[in-house]
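FAQ
Q: What does a multi-component entry look like?
A: The components come first, one per line:
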Amino acid sequence: MKIKVGIPRALYFYEEFVLWKAFFRALKIELVISEPTNDAILREGAKYLPHEFCLPVRVFVGHVINLLEKKVDFIFVPRLISLAHNSYTCPKIMGLPDVLKNVLRREKTWRMLTLNVDYNYGRLAILRRYWRLGFDLVKNPVTAFWATAKLFSLMKKMQKADLKGKNKFQVFESFGFEPFKFEHKHLAKKNLKLGVTGFSYVLYDRYLSHDLLNKLNKLGVEVVTTEMLPTRLIKEGLKELHKLMPWHLSRRIYGAAVHFLKEKEYDGLINLSYAGCGPSSKVDKLIELRAKEKRSNPLLHLHLNQHLHEETFGSKLEDFINSLKLKRA
Amino acid sequence: METKKKKLGVFRFGDYYIPFLYFVEKMGYELILPPEDEETLKLGCQHSTEAICLPFKILLGEYIRDCEMGAEELLMFSGRSIRKGKRGGACRLDFYPEMHRQILHDLGFKFDIFPFRVSMILWRKLRQNNSFIESLRVLRIFLESIRLYEYIRDLSYKYRPYEMKRGMTGEIYQRLLNKLKDQNSLPALNNLRKEAEETYEKMPQEKNREILRIPLIGEWGVQNISALNKDLDIILGELGVEVRITVKMTDFLFHSGSLLSQILNLIINRGDIHAEALKNARPYMGHYIGGMGQEAVGNAVYFAQHGYDGAIHMMPDTCMPEIIAKTALANIEQDFNFPILYITLDENTKKEDLEKKVGDFVGALKEQRKKKQ
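Then the predicted structure of the entire assembly, as tokens:
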């Protein structure tokens, strides 16, 4: 019988899924991905975690529950400690397997697959852990080795593409994974070009982001997100800091935000963040301070929380865009 | 020719500024101390976003006060993690200095940053004005006086529940701190240590009182800064509770990850006191999660196993590691039948509310104990 492994469609799914897919496929394991976020998932997740947690993490628990209903054998929740040298993920993501273990302890019987991913100890250490995971699953060292080798070659290819100046979206697409589908991508009239920054797990989740990207497209705006920028440009933006922040994604966001604020080809920047997010509380302030500098593009902060009305969100957005259009005309 | 001394603005961090008085002077700076009042925290809140944690706000307020008083250089936490040997610190503390720098620059202040962490930078600054032997001595006295300060504070926690007259311990504590300000040699510090033990012992006490033992666990900033926790340690002591602060400044200094701090840790300190806590935490919290999250979980297990009556978990609002730690603490409560009180502090916390909350908790614990007997 084939083993079924469930992967929650939340948090770092949008960053790492290409790797996971290749690895599990090589092990001949069936992957089950949870449904896109909806009201029911949010409700389930909110039951288990208190208000202090940010919404994306609460939603993650909802996705896990959703997978449990689908009768999978394992749920894959890796502990992502660091995704690039000398950087870290947010504590809530570091402690995710423990949080799940603690809150779902008495609820249901379920099995979690987990491994530590820490790039600070080098790629070899990570590959070894992946091998171990594969071996535990299929009990065959050779298959596990081939899966790990495949993972390694994929990592190499992605790195090479990154160095060539391709952006993350293009890299993902070339490996058959599309984090986000634009509905109105080919609308003819585009008169504004906006940068949008935000965590990938909020931006590309249509429920959590209130479908911001599509809404902008519909309003006739060309959208450029953090993932559509090559790493070189992001690093350039980060040079303005004396000391880098420890969080991997926040670094990307700040670097991209500086780029969007500085370059004249963009008309403005929309920064999306969720209430209760620790790193955002600091990075948002930094972006705000950066936007105060002379000759930078206008900035709109969209601070989301669970109880935000769809209407206020829409009207805020339209006001901002109308003001930009006026400015242009 | 005598050069003009540079002015160095420091933070208060509870009463931790006292060991700095001697140290900063020896480094050739003039010390600037922010006044202790409510205005400081208000200033800090005004200029930072709402969702940032409380220690950040009070430090920002203190730096603004320092700058207004003409500080040219600011002492800033340059913490990596508190853990020895592990790189990193996903907690927001890691990014304090850069944030403070940008916000203060935006307000129009000009200053340099003095990164505070036992490392070669600190050593080089010391060597500028002192000979090799002298700077070694100064560093030693500085670290010893921080430890002595913590010792004096710990003694006050030990004796406060037994005091005959309310406030006696506080008076002795203040007197000892005033003496600590003038000490500048190792033998003098040793004498003060002995004197502290004797004066506390001599204080009129009622030894047959029944007391509870409740440690404070959680984030170290709110544990140590009395302006943030509204003197919770004193409130508890007067309720007849022996308090214990689990994470202190020395844990930060000796485990800040640099080579120098590790060497000093071997020479002066007893070693990693949190090693056992981390081992205990493993079933509930398998990995380092930034800040003091894992330590809080491990300490809770330790105290539950060693017959303490309960624990008080403290954290500033939105503290990331402690929120995660809480999910584990809820399970520890059930597994060990160990009551834990959760306190979340923000700038609007009132002393009366805290008193009531803590009073109820202590009352319930006392009743529970009576039932057992």
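Q: Is there any commentary attached?
A: Sometimes. For this entry: The mean pLDDT of chain A is 87.
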